[in-house]
Amino acid sequence: MEELLGEILKEGLFWAALGRPSEVMPFLRGKLLSNGIGVERGRREYLEYLLDDLERFYKRVSWSNEIDERHWKALKSFHRDIVSVISSERA
Whole-prediction pTM value? Predict the structure, then answer.
């Protein structure tokens, strides 16, 4: 799941740079909130917050029309935070 999540986040970054920042968000939200991961209420709210923040990040990337090093660093941070929420629920 962790590797797949990383690929989905990268795909979203590329779509954002092409001017379509919310292209992967419905899929990602569906997989993480609806279909897959049953997280407790507090963790679910944090996961929803992270996804909202990720969507805003993708919008900012679309305004810049390019991907640079700071975008990759931010994406790694999102990945780490989302994996942390998911992994702690499985433990």
Answer: 0.87
